[in-house]
Amino acid sequence: MRKSLALILAGTLILAGCGGWRESRINPGNWFGKSRSAPVTVAAEGEPTNPLLAEEGRKSIFARPDKEDLSVPVAKISELRVEPTPNGAIIYASGIASRQGAHKVELRPVADAADNTLEYTLHVLYPVDPTPAGSEHSRTIQAAVTVSEQSLRGIRTIRVSGAENARETRRR
């Protein structure tokens, strides 16, 4: 009984002596101090806001010209699924291409979508050489995109469109 009482008293005294830890330089929480407000310099209209980003007109001598976008909307949208995740949702879309060989499948957001609507277009790139049409199964393509919870705020409808049709799903 005496040993346990002595250990409890010693532990209490040691723990009470650790009160200075909060203001100590050893504490990593004190390394940067408290934040405070600082004035912001407003950039003039002619100067760039971020000096690390290249200006529009200047290019390197090794820069290649931008490639022309040859992708087109897929012929038909066959399926649209939205599966929730802890961080938002994953939008899955399946489409049927007009011919075989479609590649570089991409769900591109539509900039001028209606309010409360998140709209995408399913784009594909076809080979330059002609390819056979083939069966529907051989022309089926799929794409997915992850959407954050912040992007889904206020969204009631998700719509994916192709060349011939569009599919949409509404929030319950």
Q: Give me the strand/helix succession.
A: HEEEEEHEHEE
What is the CA–CA distance across the termini?
65 Å
Topology, number of strands: 8
Mean pLDDT across residues:
80
Biggest β-sheet description: 5 strands, mixed
Percent of sequence in beta strands: 25-35%
Shape: elongated
Radius of gyration: 29 Å
**What does the oligomeric state look like here?**
single chain
Helix content: 10-25%
Query: Class by helix and strand content?
Result: alpha+beta
Q: Specify the number of helices.
A: 3
Low-confidence stretches: 31-38
Comma- or semicolon-separated keywords:
five-stranded mixed sheet, 8 strands, alpha+beta, elongated, 13% helix, three-stranded antiparallel sheet, 172 residues, 3 helices
Task: Provide structural commentary.
The protein is α+β, with helices and mostly antiparallel strands and 172 residues long. The protein has a domain at 72-170. The chain contains three helices and eight strands. It has helices spanning 2-16, 136-139, 149-152, and strands at residues 72-73, 76-85, 88-96, 103-109, 117-125, 140-148, 157-161, 166-170. Strand 7 (157-161) and strand 8 (166-170) form a beta hairpin. The radius of gyration is 29 Å and the shape is elongated. The termini are far apart.
